[in-house]
Amino acid sequence: MNIDIIGDIHGCFPEFKQLTKKMGYTWETGIPLHPSGRILGFVGDLTDRGPNSLQVIEVVHELVINQKLAKYAPGNHCNKLYRYFSGNKVQVSHGLETTVAEYETLSIREQKKIRKKFMELYERSPLYQHLDEGRLIIAHAGIRRDYIGQYGNKVKTFVLYGDINGSKHPDGSPIRKDWAGSYEGNAWIVYGHTPVPHARKVNRTYNIDTGCVFGGKLTAIRYPEMELQDVPSSMPYLAEKFRTSFD
């Protein structure tokens, strides 16, 4: 399997396009296609905070659902947008407000189309991707070794939000334990969720959320080569959004 896995895009469509082009994908048909048949993977959080969330949805839906040329694992922002589109009562905050603002500029007909596409993408994708005969896992916030192959509520919470127990930092953000530090599995786990200044390799795990929407960069990892590629963000840099300590 030859797959290029992209970190949290968060509506940063120009960087997504630039990164795929850097890796040899062409966009002549309106979606990124690789001449040697490589496919794309996504760690989730396609939308929110950035300026072009709906464009990202359009392209990823086409790749995953219609062309079968990509693998997608939903993130916590994807889960929240799905609940919003389902009519559930969710807080339109923490980035969702930017996607909703884009959505509300559309005609009713266009709203129905993009809503249907996103809900189909979400519903037809597994909680995490178990690929290459178990040698590669794409999970939004990661996954514990003993959770691999399971799909219950505990696993869902872990995959979407990380290793949390309800405790919070003084600023209100959740305290996430560093599960990767104790991971001893043989499968490579590629994930995102927690913005880091540079892609972080610990044991056989890679965090490739390098905070594009916070002014960092958009990062991809090429499998099986395990080579990193990135492009700089066009967004303002917000240093406080990046995690640098994992004690």
From TrEMBL:
It comes from Peribacillus muralis. InterPro entries: Ap4A_hydrolase, Calcineurin-like_PHP, Metallo-depent_PP-like, MPP_PrpE-like, Ser/Thr-sp_prot-phosphatase. Pfam families: Metallophos. CDD domains: MPP_Prp_like. Residues 1-197 form the Calcineurin-like phosphoesterase domain. PANTHER family: BIS(5'-NUCLEOSYL)-TETRAPHOSPHATASE PRPE [ASYMMETRICAL], METALLOPHOSPHOESTERASE. This is Calcineurin-like phosphoesterase domain-containing protein. One of its GO terms (molecular function) is phosphatase activity. GO terms for cellular component: cytoplasm.
